[in-house]
Amino acid sequence: MLEKNIQQIQEQVKNALEKAGREANEAVIVCVSKYVDTKTVKELVARGVRHFGENRLPSFLEKHSAIEEKVVWHFIGNLQTKKVRKVINEIDYFHALDSLKLASEIDKRRTSPLKCFVEVNITGEESKHGLLPEDVLPFLKEISDFKNILVVGLMTMAEKNANEEELHTTFRKLYELTQQLKKENIPNAPLNEMSAGMSQDFSIALEEGSTFVRIGSAFFKEHEEDFDGLTR
């Protein structure tokens, strides 16, 4: 079943990119592995999956130490400042940078530039983490001299029950904000990427410019009832 799901996801990503007039290699599929065990991750690695997203420190550290193959690790959840030192030099991407305090701790603890996405609360929901769109530019300027943080792009999550039109609007706003900020030529913030789209909405995100999609439940559909909210 894993093989079938992988092929289906790859085909859906390819079709969404083609629909948007984009090349097939313009998007990275991040497998959100936070609710599956190390054995399952190893099976995915054996089938060619190389990008994995985790947001729970114990789970990540266990898998990181057990996987011998070269894979790319993404930390996709909010990270407490006190836990930064335990994980920050073991990951390749961080998708939830949203405060000066956290950025300062990462810059202090990291031994080389870390590729980061600044989390943006496009929809303005009070329950969500992330900076409001108008606060992103001041934040980027504030951290522009941090040598160990490279802001490769912005990240957002759409509202859980958003309709198709609302999804397009959310992801388009993130893309437009990215393009607007790129013109500022902020040091250490190339902003060439965009992290948006999960199992239920990644095709729409890709149509609106996303380059990293975080897919969980679609990889494990035979157990879908056990993975409620997996990609969150």
UniProtKB/TrEMBL annotation:
Highest taxon of source: Bacteria
GO molecular function terms listed in the Swiss-Prot or TrEMBL record: pyridoxal phosphate binding
Cofactor(s) named in the record: pyridoxal 5'-phosphate
One Pfam assignment: Ala_racemase_N
Keywords for the protein's UniProt record, in alphabetical order: Pyridoxal phosphate
Modification N6-(pyridoxal phosphate)lysine, positions: K34
Family from the record: Belongs to the pyridoxal phosphate-binding protein YggS/PROSC family.
Function, as annotated: Pyridoxal 5'-phosphate (PLP)-binding protein, which is involved in PLP homeostasis.
Official protein name in the record: Pyridoxal phosphate homeostasis protein
Organism: Pilibacter termitis
